[in-house]
């Protein structure tokens, strides 16, 4: 579940292996989508609700039908979903979230997309990773969701990275805590796609370097480890990561050990990456986002170069 609290500069604008059914089989009609959306909005009244927390955040008007076509455990507490969105007008920017409407569930979920826009363009797929919680949408995903379950989605959020080809090259520092990795993984994957596009075509946006700092309690709760390290190995001169664990008790595997630091992400680590060409994206628990955004401001990083989102 996410709630945006963000400063956005002008520039900032793993498959589950299941074959998805054709677009024609998405049976939610336009009238059914409208009914589902209106009913959920009217019934979703708790102060902790995603819709209330994000009431003043920019979101698209269009609600699109989606079908679950893949599900897998990403960690002991996080389930990964792959959704097929057949609507060709549905699009998102790397880092944004979706309103998640579930038939029969009155509360609307809010989940960050962790896949890249390129996956949607090529396969009409988006991916989510949802942590177990007593919140009705999360409970449904963990306990009731099945292949071919039908839902509806709507894109929103002001936390994104969407450079245009002629924009100045920027470095990125991504700071994630727990499931706050989701929007940052989307941005990381998008940056990798931009690298590939420029290498293949010789044109397009020129990405600078990307450094990911990612903290969780232990290595089993570090999500998307393989995906992240695959990108680090594919672009060793462009992408780097520092994975932090705060309550590790088990032995750390040999393949992860070079990237692991025991203890929290420190202010000095972040400060070492400050430059005029660097944008900072932060997503995690509110105390973490508050701490690093304040530290960056105190280090004279322009506010328009700091973009953050809190999750609950």
List the helices and strands and how they pair.
Elements (H helix, E strand, L loop, with lengths): L1 E3 L25 H14 L6 H4 L10 E12 L2 E7 L12 E5 L7 E4 L4 H7 L1 E7 L4 H8 L6 E7 L14 E7 L3 H21 L8 E7 L8 H10 L4 E7 L14 E3 L4 H5 L6 E7 L1 H13 L7 E6 L1
Parallel strand pairs: 8-9, 8-12, 9-10, 10-11, 12-13
Antiparallel strand pairs: 1-13, 2-3, 2-7, 3-6, 4-5, 4-7
What report would you give on this structure?
It is a single chain. Helices cover 26% and strands 26% of the residues. The protein has helices at residues 30-43, 50-53, 117-123, 136-143, 181-201, 225-234, 267-271, 286-298; strands at 2-4, 64-75, 78-84, 97-101, 109-112, 125-131, 150-156, 171-177, 210-216, 239-245, 260-262, 278-284, 306-311. Mean pLDDT is 89; it is low at 2-26.
Order of helices and strands: EHHEEEEHEHEEHEHEEHEHE
Strand segment count: 13
The CATH class assignment of the largest domain is: Alpha Beta
Q: Determine the fraction of residues in helical runs and give it as a percent range.
A: 25-40%
Sheet having the most strands: 7 strands, mixed
Mean pLDDT: 89
Determine the CATH topology of the largest domain. Answer: Rossmann fold
Low-confidence stretches are 2-26
Distance between the termini: 6 Å
What's the arrangement of strands in the largest beta sheet? 1-13-12-8-9-10-11
InterPro entries: FAD-bd_FR_type, FNR_nucleotide-bd, Oxidoreductase_NAD-binding, OxRdtase_FAD/NAD-bd, Riboflavin_synthase-like_b-brl
GO molecular function, one term: oxidoreductase activity
Keywords: NAD, Oxidoreductase
Protein name: Oxidoreductase NAD-binding domain-containing protein 1
């Amino acid at each position: 579940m996410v709630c945006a609290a963000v400063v956005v500069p002008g520039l900032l604008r793993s498959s589950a292996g299941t074959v998805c059914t054709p677009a024609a089989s998405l049976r939610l009609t336009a009238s059914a989508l409208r009914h589902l959306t209106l009913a959920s909005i009217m019934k979703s009244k708790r102060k902790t609700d995603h819709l209330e927390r994000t009431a003043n955040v920019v979101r698209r008007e269009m609600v699109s039908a989606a079908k679950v076509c893949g599900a897998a455990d990403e960690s002991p507490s996080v389930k990964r979903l792959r959704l097929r969105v057949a609507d060709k007008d549905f699009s998102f920017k790397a880092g944004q979230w979706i309103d998640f409407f579930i038939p029969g569930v009155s509360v609307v979920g809010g989940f960050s997309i962790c896949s890249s826009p390129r996956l949607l363009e090529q396969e009409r797929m988006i991916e989510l990773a949802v942590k177990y919680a007593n919140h009705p949408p999360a409970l449904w995903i963990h306990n009731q969701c099945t292949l071919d379950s039908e839902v509806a989605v709507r894109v929103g959020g002001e936390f994104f990275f969407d450079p245009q080809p002629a924009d100045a090259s920027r470095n990125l520092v991504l700071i994630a805590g727990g499931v706050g990795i989701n929007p940052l993984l989307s941005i990381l994957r998008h940056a990798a796609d931009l690298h590939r596009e420029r290498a293949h075509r010789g044109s397009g946006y020129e990405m600078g370097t990307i450094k990911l700092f990612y903290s969780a309690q232990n290595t089993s709760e570090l999500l998307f480890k393989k995906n992240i390290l695959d990108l680090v190995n594919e672009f060793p001169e462009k992408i780097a990561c520092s994975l932090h664990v705060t309550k590790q008790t088990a032995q750390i595997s040999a393949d992860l050990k070079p990237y692991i630091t025991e203890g929290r992400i420190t202010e000095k680590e972040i400060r070492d990456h400050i430059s005029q060409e660097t944008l900072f994206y932060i997503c995690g628990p509110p105390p973490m986002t508050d701490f690093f955004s304040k530290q960056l401001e105190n280090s004279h990083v322009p506010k328009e170069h700091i973009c953050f989102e809190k999750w609950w």
